[in-house]
Input
Amino acid sequence: MRQFLTVVLIAAAIWGGVTFYKYAKSEVARDERRTDDRYVPGKLPGLPKEMEAALAAAQQEGAASLKNWLTRNRSEITDPRLTEIELDYVVLVGRTNPTEARRELNVIKQRIAPQHPQYKRFQELDQAYP
Output
């Protein structure tokens, strides 16, 4: 009787493991599809596509507008797109206020890693604003 219960428990554990694996695999696939639809193709991920128009308008209006837009929406943007937008701000503000550009670059420097897609651009701007 003990051997029969052991076999039943092992079979139940295997069945539970296989069922969990299938469930986890389907959830990951569903989450990946959801993530792919959320961002604009051809752009770095991290900015929801419904915010692209507002970003473009803020960039057209200038550095102050882009800074205000970033302040309002920073919590909804993730890297690497956040760093790209911040570097765009550095370029816009650097024309009139190099001190503010340097301050923003110092903030970015604390979190950017060499494998980041925008690292080369960051280095170029870091050298441009002493």
Observations:
- The helical segments are 2-38, 52-61, 63-73, 81-94, 98-109, 119-128.
- The chain has six helices and no strands.
